[in-house]
Design brief:
This protein has 132 residues and is mainly alpha-helical. 69% of the residues lie in helices and 0% in strands.
C-alpha cells in the first residue's frame, strides 16, 4: 500500500468519519450530558452509569479504534432523535436505546479500567442527585 493510500485509509477509518456531519456536533460532552440529564430518571441508574462508561471509554486515548467505532455507534443512536422506537413514546420509548447500550457495554467490559468505572459511578450519583 502506498503512503498516500495508507494515509487515506487511516483517515477514513477514524471513528469520527462514520458519523454523519449533521450528527457530529451532538457527540460532544454538552450534547451528551444535556440529553442524559433530561432523561436520567426514565433511564435509571444502571443505564445512566453504562452511558457514562461508554462515553468515558470513547474519550479515552487507551481505547482501541475498533472499540471506539462501536461505542460511537451506540452513543449516536442514543443521541439521535430518530430511532426504531421514538424516545417520546412513554415507557417503551427507550427500550431500543437500552438494548443497544447494554449490548455495547457488555462488549466493551474488557477495556474498562477502575478509573473509568469510578468516574462513571461518581458522575451517575451526581446526576441522579441533581435530577431527584
Amino acid at each position: 500500500m502506498k503512503h498516500s493510500e495508507e494515509k487515506q485509509y487511516t483517515q477514513s477509518s477514524d471513528p469520527e468519519n462514520f458519523i454523519p456531519k449533521f450528527r457530529r456536533r451532538n457527540l460532544d460532552k454538552t450534547g451528551f450530558l444535556n440529553k442524559l440529564a433530561r432523561f436520567a430518571g426514565r433511564l435509571g441508574e444502571p443505564i445512566v452509569r453504562q452511558l457514562y462508561v461508554l462515553y468515558y471509554l470513547w474519550d479515552s486515548p487507551h481505547t482501541p479504534r475498533r472499540a471506539k467505532m462501536i461505542i460511537v455507534g451506540a452513543l449516536v443512536y442514543f443521541l439521535s432523535p430518530i430511532d426504531s422506537i421514538p424516545d417520546l413514546l412513554g415507557p417503551l420509548g427507550f427500550s431500543d436505546d437500552i438494548a443497544v447500550i447494554t449490548l455495547v457495554y457488555s462488549q466493551m467490559k474488557t477495556y474498562l479500567t477502575e478509573d473509568i468505572k469510578e468516574r462513571a459511578r461518581l458522575a451517575t450519583e451526581k446526576l441522579l442527585r441533581k435530577t431527584s
